[in-house]
Amino acid sequence: LEAQLADLTFHFGFGGVHASVENSIFRASETHIIKDIDVSGMYVAVAIANGCYPEHLDQDFVTAYRQLQQDRAHYPKGTMMNAVLKLAGNGVYGNSNQPFSPFYDPKYLYSVTTNGQLQILQLVEKLSLLPDLKIIQANTDGITVYMPRSIESWFHFWCRDWEQETGLKLEEVDYESMHIADVNNYIAVTTKGKIKRKGKYWYPIDRDDY
Description:
The chain is of the alpha+beta class. The protein is built from five helices and ten strands.
């Protein structure tokens, strides 16, 4: 499925919604910034916020899943315990598509992905109303925008408004530049110097990348 919004074509799949400008370069400047925002712990968070659970496990599943989410929040990103709890949450969701898993339930699986897509589009709709804000990419769990610095406070206002409506939390990264071929192939450089490489631009720079 496809839909046109904010001058982009949004593609809907079983896993998420995607959209992107193509063959474009964006750079932060004295007047403009590049913001990347994504949902923290997307699949786990959407399941909890929307009360989704495998039918054979009932509401106790949501209670246990919420505890897992809360436990992970106690550990900083990059720590082993944070990674372990993230893997546990995502593993449960992933196994909901495995016929021999105790978590198997396709209805639950697609309830989470469908709600996630619609809530990302809700965020796109809110932000696209801001003057001169350009949405340059949407990729499953978040969006990237290019906008004047003068409207940054309004940007945060509508992000917080969306968080309150959905029960989801957003994480934010500032980019110095973004070089985009398409939704699956791009390079983004953060203001802290970290380089994000996707698709054909990926290459190993140390042993951990292999």
